[in-house]
């Protein structure tokens, strides 16, 4: 027996399955990497319930009745299962969970539409995931990816970053809508006031200090630290919430959502009652096929390009890419990611997607799917601690939204601001998302602006046919009410 054959025969099944030694890693490095990825992603267990319960659907109902613990447990469950699936099927060090930005699209852009319910909104997420899966299997996903200009994709990411930021600032009470003019103001009458505001500011500063010192898990540690401070302040000062039982604001300097307090139970059997709470095609009857197509496309667009960029970025960090810049098992990675999108909707916790925070695990030495299995197991363990999420007020969690918004904003430097044909559509995309509180509006305006400027400059032939098709759909979307009135629909 040769030395190589003897070495291979002595390797454990774990090493052979995940090709640990082949990729220059070790079991210890994979475990450390998996833990690091979990701690940089775990904030989603806190943030996803807060975003999904920010507004009710059109019927006035909140997801899971506003029960944050149920949403947190289900968020962790889906993240755990899908991250393990990524490790076992694709053998790639990628963590998956409910996508920030995607959950904002569902909450603010879909669930509140006239006639829509949370089940309908989640049905659209399932539909989007299934369509992406088909596009992956047919190779069409790459065609759509090539059709949208790169810099416009960057503008979408930047716009979502600003949208997330304004959501965080509004939910924390840093930005508020006063009774009169102007439309919004800083704090209360232009001044920051109240202990909850101080919690937000200190939480934000903590995350920035930790990130400046390159400490992994900065966002999670910031949330934990701010939450502990909030619990101490509430227990000693009895600050209370902003609103009374009727929802009227009676205490402007109080807590914006949940009042931070230590729950009676820290450990409990998780409630997964949200599983299966979706209506696949109910939205077609409620909002019409054209609107459904546009909303599904909006979800697809946000999901599409983040995943492809994330898997390449993680692969580059770990020197896992081939000569053409492709990661190993590309199709398997995309298949699992597509299943994750549908699974998130089927579990009523919004579309799940790959996380760029996985690069932290790669930085710790992770090179294989074993790290993803470790990350997924930690998410499953987190389902038993979901009551702790009720301790976290908006003011402790939303600094993370501002920091994530900053991270997404950094891509703005890649846009050619001297080129009107791309700069103005990018500008429309970026500003309309936060200003209209609609991610769909920003994407649609950017696409229409891009096609229009190419047309008036005599460059219509350079626009990809898919972009023309998408632009027409968005034009119909923006003029849907006048069209309905004209047709008497």
Structure description:
The structure is a single chain. The protein is 62% helix and 2% strand. The protein has one domain. The strands form 2 sheets. A two-stranded antiparallel sheet has the order 1-4. With 489 residues, it is mainly alpha-helical. The model is unreliable at 1-10 (pLDDT under 50).
Short description:
With 489 residues, this protein is mainly α. It contains 21 helices and four strands. A hairpin with an 8-residue loop joins strand 2 (175-176) and strand 3.
Question: Keyphrases for this structure?
Answer:
disordered N terminus; two-stranded antiparallel ribbon; 489 residues; 62% helix; 2% strand; 4 strands; globular; mainly alpha; two-stranded antiparallel sheet
Mean pLDDT metric: 85
Please state the overall shape, judged from the principal axes of the Cα atoms. Answer: globular
The figure for the number of domains is: 1
N-to-C SSE string, H for helix and E for strand: HHHHHEHHHHEEHHHHHEHHHHHHH
Q: Decide which structural class fits the backbone.
A: mainly alpha
The low-confidence runs, each spanning 5 or more residues with pLDDT under 50, are 1-10
C-alpha-based Rg, rounded: 23 Å
Give the strand order, joined by hyphens, for the main sheet: 1-4
User: Count of DSSP E strands?
Assistant: 4
Percent helix range: 55-70%
What percent strand?
under 5%
Enumerate how many helices there are, as a single number. Answer: 21
Largest sheet: 2 strands, antiparallel
Q: Termini distance? A: 79 Å
